[in-house]
Amino acid sequence: MNVRRHIRTTVTAGALALGLAAVSACSLTDGGDGREGGKLKVTASFYPMTFLAERVGGDHVTVSTLTKPGVEPHDLELKPRQTAELGESGYILYLKGIQPTVDKAIEQSGVEHTTDAATLTRAEPGPGPTPAGTARPISPAKPISPAKPAKPAQGGASGQDDHRADHSDHGDHGDHGDGHEDHGDGHGSHDGHEETPATEKSPAVEKSPAAEKTPAAEDRQEGQDSHDSHDGHDHGSGGGDPHLWLDPAKYADMARGVGEALAEADPANADDFRRNAATLAGELARLDTDFREGLSSTGTRTFITTHAAFGHLAGRYGLIQEGISGLSPDAEPSPARIKQLQTIAEEDKVTTVFFETLASDRTAKTVASDAGLRTAVLDPLEGITDKSPGSDYLEVMRANLAALQKALGAK
Q1: How far apart are CA 404 and CA 323, in angstroms?
Q2: Are 91 and 106 in contact (CB under 8 A)?
Q3: 157 and 203 co-located in one domain
Q4: Per-residue pLDDT for 4 more than 60?
Q5: Is 21 helix (H, G, I), strand (E, B) or coil?
Q6: Domain count of the fold of the chain
Q7: What's the angle, vertex CA 167, arms to CA 333 and CA 172, rounded to 5?
Q8: Separation CA 189–CA 191 (nearest Å)
Q9: Strand pairing category for 114-116 and 302-305
Q10: pLDDT above 70 (res 7)
Q11: Distance CA 109, CA 90 (A)
C-alpha cells in the first residue's frame, strides 16, 4: 500500500469539500453557463486529455488543465479553487482511475457534459501488467483506420489472474535468439501462436508445470509475489494498466469519441469538432504505422522500464515490457525483483533500462549499473516540460519510437 498517497488523499478530502461548497457561488459569475468569451469552457484532467481537447476543440474552446506541467499526475492535490472551477466547465475530459481525487471531484461537480476517455476505446489487446510490471507480448495489431471508431470499452483491462497464468507459461525464456522466434523448452515457437486482433481479448494461457520448475521461472514468480502490494493507486476497472493513450490506435479512438462528445456539448460547432477529430485520428494512424514498421524487426523484443506504463504500447507492437517496480511510479523494487531483472536482461539480450522525465532516474541507474546496461528516457507522456523529448504528444511519441528502436536493435 502506498501510505504517502493515502495521506494525500485524506488531506485533499477537506479541500475537495471546501471547493465544492464554493461551486454554486462561482457558477453565478462569469462562466456559469459553461462558456467564456463565446467559447466552450473545457477542463482536462492532465496532459493526454489536454492535447485531445485542444486539437479536437480547436478555436471553439478554451482549455484549462488541472495538472500543471512538471506535476506527477498520480500525486495531484486539487486546490479549493480548482475544485470550484470544475463546476463552471461546459465540458470535462478525464481518464478515470489515474487520479482518484479528480474522479471524485468530477462526480460531485454537477457538470452535464463529462467524458471518461477510457470508455471511448477497448482495453485490449494484450493482458494488463501484473503488479510485478510485466506485460507479455501478443501478435502486433493490424493497421488502424482513421475513420472507423472502436466499440466502447467492455469491462476494462484484463484481470491480473488471467495475466498471471500467461506470465507463468512464459516463466522460462530459454534461448530467444535474435527475435524470440525460438523460446526453447516449454515454449514452442512464436510461429505457432495465433494472431490476436486488436479488438479481441487475449485468452489466458494454462500454466506449464515444466516451465515452473526452471530456476528462471522460480526467480520470476518470487519477484512477482514480492511486488503484489507495490501498486499504490487505482488503475480503474480490472486493475489493469490505465495508460491507454500510449497506444496510438486507442488514442485515435479517444480522439473520435471526444469529437462526438464536444459535438453534443456544443452542437453549433459539431461539424468542426468532427472534422478536427478525423484529422487527428489520421495523424495517429500514421504514427501507428511508423511504430509497426519501425519495430517489426528487432534484435530483442524486451525492454526494462522503471514505470510499467507501457503495457498497451507493448501489447500493440508485440513487445515485452519488464517494469522494475510495477505500475506505481515511485515504488521501490525488492531484491528478488532486481535479481529477476538481471536474469531477464541476460537471457533476452536487453541493452537499456528506461526511466521517465517526471520521476527520479536513481532506480534505473542502479539497476542498469548492476546489470551492465545503459539508461535512456521513455516518456509516458503524463506531462510536458522543458525536459520532455518533444513539445507535444506526437513529437514525444516519435522520440519514444526512436529510443525503442535503438534499445531493441531495430533492423
Answers
A1: 15
A2: no
A3: yes
A4: no
A5: helix
A6: 2
A7: 90
A8: 5
A9: unpaired
A10: no
A11: 11
Tell me the residue range of the domain where 99 lies: 3-120+244-286
Q: Around Cβ 282, how many Cβ atoms within 10 Å?
A: 15
* Cα(330)–Cα(346) distance, integer angstroms: 25
Amino acid, single-letter form, for residue 54 = E
248, 224: one domain: no
The closest of 85, 51, 91 to 66, measured between CA atoms, is 85
Q: Are residues 236 and 276 in the same domain?
A: no
CA distance 77 to 9: 8
| Rounded Cα distance, 27 and 34, in Å | 9
Alpha-carbon gap, residue 78 to 84, rounded angstroms: 10
Classify residue 47: in a domain, yes or no. Answer: yes
Which of 163, 186, 161, 190 shows the shortest CA–CA distance to 173?
Answer: 186
Mean pLDDT confidence for 297-317: 95
- pLDDT bin (cut points 50, 70, 90) of residue 357 is confident
Is residue 296 very low, low, confident or very high in pLDDT (cuts 50, 70, 90)? very high
What pLDDT, on a 0 to 100 scale, did the predictor assign at position 124?
A: 74
Task: Give residue 330's pLDDT band: very low, low, confident or very high (50, 70, 90).
Answer: low
Distance, CA of 311 to CA of 315 (rounded, Å): 6
On whether both 297 and 152 belong to a single domain, the answer is yes
On whether residue 160 sits in a domain, the answer given is: yes
Average pLDDT on 33-56 reads 96
Q: Distance between CA 87 and CA 60 in Å, rounded?
A: 19
Cell output for 87? 463546476
- Domain assignment present for residue 105? The answer is yes
Q: What is the DSSP letter of 163?
A: H
Q: Is 9 part of a structural domain of the chain?
A: yes
Per-residue pLDDT at 339 exceeds 60 = yes
- Positive or negative, the Cα torsion across 163, 322, 358, 393? negative
Which ranges of 170-269 would DSSP assign to H, the alpha helix? 209-212, 215-226, 248-265
Predicted TM-score (pTM) of this structure: 0.70
Q: CA 400, CA 411: separation in Å to the nearest integer?
A: 17
Percentage of the chain lying above the pLDDT 90 cut: 52
Q: Kindly report the CATH number assigned to the domain that includes residue 317.
A: 3.40.50.1980
Q: Give me the amino acid identity at 340.
A: Q
Which 3 state secondary structure label does DSSP give 64?
strand
Tell me if 350 sits within 8 A of 367, measured CB to CB. Answer: no
